[in-house]
């Protein structure tokens, strides 16, 4: 079970690529809006309709929570107390947290989730990461429980990394091949 959170001005490539790749792998993906309605307009004008509002899943458990980037979308995620609580509990349970683009710096850093771990984010936010910003496209740290990535161009690689962590490398290769991803 994977939770992908979206907000007004979320980066649509990062959200949709992740949702799509995870669903291709057979993951049960729930898309939750942190806005007051399920429909959100992303950073480039693409309209997404979430499955639920964040409050509807506040008490549920997931194997992975994904925070896409985009600004001010990532800030809207950071400003959501329900999501902050979910992420904190998720980290305490040692489950996978994944964030891409601005989200590692804007959403995870204020919650202390980037302390003592290697990570990456969009270069515009690199100075916000407490342990420096890796130039790798995708960084897996905290014994596989934290996945961070750079931005829209690394979104499919980011999602395939999540498939590998959740379902294994063989499943990831089975998804990657038909997508023609190198």
Automatic annotation (TrEMBL):
<dbReference type="InterPro" id="IPR050325">
    <property type="entry name" value="Prot/Nucl_acid_deglycase"/>
</dbReference>
<dbReference type="InterPro" id="IPR006287">
    <property type="entry name" value="DJ-1"/>
</dbReference>
<dbReference type="InterPro" id="IPR029062">
    <property type="entry name" value="Class_I_gatase-like"/>
</dbReference>
<dbReference type="GO" id="GO:1903189">
    <property type="term" value="P:glyoxal metabolic process"/>
</dbReference>
<dbReference type="InterPro" id="IPR002818">
    <property type="entry name" value="DJ-1/PfpI"/>
</dbReference>
<feature type="domain" description="DJ-1/PfpI">
    <location>
        <begin position="1"/>
        <end position="164"/>
    </location>
</feature>
<keyword id="KW-0677">Repeat</keyword>
<dbReference type="Pfam" id="PF01965">
    <property type="entry name" value="DJ-1_PfpI"/>
</dbReference>
<protein>
    <recommendedName>
        <fullName>DJ-1/PfpI domain-containing protein</fullName>
    </recommendedName>
</protein>
<dbReference type="GO" id="GO:0005737">
    <property type="term" value="C:cytoplasm"/>
</dbReference>
């Amino acid at each position: 079970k994977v939770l992908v959170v979206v907000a007004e001005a979320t980066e649509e490539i990062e959200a949709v690529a992740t949702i799509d790749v995870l669903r291709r792998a057979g993951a049960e993906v729930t898309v939750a809006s942190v806005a007051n309605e399920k429909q959100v307009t992303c950073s480039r004008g693409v309209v997404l309709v979430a499955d639920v509002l964040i409050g509807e899943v506040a008490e549920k458990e997931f194997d992975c929570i994904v925070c896409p980037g985009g600004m001010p979308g990532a800030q809207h995620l950071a400003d959501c107390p329900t999501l902050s609580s979910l992420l904190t509990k998720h980290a305490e349970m040692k489950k996978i947290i994944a964030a891409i683009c601005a989200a590692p710096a804007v959403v995870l850093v204020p919650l202390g989730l980037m302390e003592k771990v290697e990570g990456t984010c969009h270069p515009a936010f690199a100075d916000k990461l407490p342990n420096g910003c890796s130039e790798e496209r995708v960084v897996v740290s905290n014994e596989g429980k934290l996945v961070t990535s750079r931005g829209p161009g690394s979104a499919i690689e980011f999602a395939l990394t999540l498939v590998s962590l959740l379902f294994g490398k063989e499943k990831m290769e089975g998804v990657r091949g038909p997508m023609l991803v190198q």
